[in-house]
User: Which sequence fits this backbone?
């Protein structure tokens, strides 16, 4: 038998006031006195009252559910982002619903189409690579569903966006390698279709330019984000004719770890012969041997900030979109020690 939960009728009966007064007090309406509101909140606490969001949603056209679209869940960065999102959402009595794209544009599109009639108050999204624009997100926003992008954003869609400082993070990573004495620096990066890729590539080029080093076309490799991609990228760099790198800047730590593993299998001493630096500060970066130098991203803060912006969009339909960029930090470890 299902447990009976406290309702606003129970609170109203206990205080001998109307249900409408209790409802307004719980929603902090202006026409309820401070004393009445405090009494209602105190009795609600004593009676372990929990809001029925299904019922309030019918009246307020709110479900208290936020959708989060991400490429993967088995990843330190995204698990940290979700932690930040969840912390802010729960503080405001919102639930989060996860949707995983596996970095496939067609899956992202299908998720978006299926969400059109679902019960969500807003969407937080980290986009999959696409050759064209993101009409499915444009359609959501056009239908009145707030959307906020984080990390990987759709530049053409006018809404709030939260990113780490990809340009300066990449610049710092490459300049660190140069200061350690490396001169032929490869960049194993991600899809050309992502703004994140473009910004980190721009930082890479700028650091080379500042130190009068050439940008060697053979040392730039585009692929995915996985450890296996990093291993394959190293094979491409060292098996093909042309210049061989003495350092590798990886677009993320997973690829950096793949690069370390591939170099070790080839008998190349990581650090002394070929330096490697990543981008994320995944905990595994400290465990791998040699430990991986990296650029630490504020993943949890990105999640918090993105969720805070989405809640503003939800509560205020004419909220002006904001683009926020959070700083990164250089973490020096063994993989860049000559």
Assistant:
């Amino acid at each position: 038998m299902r447990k009976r939960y406290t309702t606003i009728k129970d609170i109203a009966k206990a205080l001998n006031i109307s249900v409408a007064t209790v409802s307004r007090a719980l929603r902090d309406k202006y026409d309820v006195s401070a004393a009445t509101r405090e009494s209602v909140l105190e009795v609600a606490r004593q009676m372990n009252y929990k809001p029925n969001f299904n019922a309030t949603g019918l009246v307020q056209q709110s479900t208290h559910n936020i959708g989060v679209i991400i490429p993967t869940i088995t990843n330190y960065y995204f698990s940290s982002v979700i932690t930040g999102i969840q912390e802010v959402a729960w503080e405001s009595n919102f639930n989060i619903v996860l949707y995983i794209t596996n970095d496939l544009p067609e899956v992202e599109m299908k998720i978006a189409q299926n969400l059109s009639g679902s019960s969500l108050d807003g969407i937080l999204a980290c986009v999959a690579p696409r050759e064209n624009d993101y009409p499915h997100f444009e359609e959501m926003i056009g239908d009145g569903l707030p959307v906020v992008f984080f990390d990987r954003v759709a530049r053409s869609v006018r809404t709030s966006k939260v990113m780490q400082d990809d340009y300066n993070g990449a610049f710092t990573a490459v300049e660190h390698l140069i200061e350690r004495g490396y001169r032929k620096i490869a960049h194993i990066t991600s899809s050309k279709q992502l703004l994140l890729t473009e910004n980190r590539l721009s930082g890479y080029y700028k650091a080379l330019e500042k130190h009068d080093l050439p940008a060697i076309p053979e040392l730039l490799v585009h692929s995915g984000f996985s450890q296996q991609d990093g291993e394959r990228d190293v094979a491409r760099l060292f098996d093909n004719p042309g210049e061989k790198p003495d350092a590798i800047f990886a677009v993320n730590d997973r690829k950096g770890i793949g690069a370390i593993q591939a170099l070790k299998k080839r008998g190349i001493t990581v650090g002394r012969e070929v330096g490697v630096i990543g981008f994320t500060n995944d905990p595994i970066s400290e465990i791998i041997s040699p430990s991986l130098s990296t650029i630490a991203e504020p993943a949890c803060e990105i999640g918090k900030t993105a969720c805070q912006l989405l809640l503003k969009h939800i509560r205020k339909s004419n909220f002006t979109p904001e683009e926020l960029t959070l700083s990164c930090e250089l973490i020096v470890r063994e993989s860049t020690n000559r």
Notes: The first strand starts at residue 65 and ends at 70. The first helix runs from residue 8 to 15. Residues 65-164+299-326 form a domain with the Rossmann fold fold (CATH 3.40.50.2300).
